[in-house]
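User: My collaborator sent over this chain with a note saying "see what the structure looks like." That's all I know about it. Can you take a look?
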Amino acid sequence: MPREQGRKVVASNRKARHDYAILDTYEAGMVLTGTEVKSLRAGRSSLVDAFGHENHGEIFLHGMHIPEYTQGTWTNHEPRRVRKLLLKRAEIHKLLGKLREEGLTLVPLSVYFNNGYAKVELGLAKGKKSYDKRQDLASRDAQREINKAMGRRSKGMD
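Assistant: Without extra context I'll predict from the sequence alone. Here is the result:
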């Protein structure tokens, strides 16, 4: 059977970009069981409350919810199990050095299939304060108003 080509997004964590300032992004593979892959291919996954954590020099993903596969039998997986992430050793050492800094965390931004392989996009993030969030919303609204006015002006409506 031919392998999928391109990138198919399964789940994205939109709230992460609102709650955190993303400093750097990484792409990592995941160690999954067969029924987890089938659930992901069906488009069922949630990244709410998920985070990356280091344990004995390896990176693990905690809190990601992949529901049980409906046609699965006794071989079904546990929905919120801890999943190992596959990164190159140099990337892990670089990440661990940055994670030891004060206030940085590892947040999953999206889960997708890249040429048939399940991948997760991780963001090295720093938490935003509430006034930063309000400032981002205000600047986004102002930019939307500017674009709307420019659109009307180019159409000769203003």
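A starting point for your reply to your collaborator: The radius of gyration is 19 Å.
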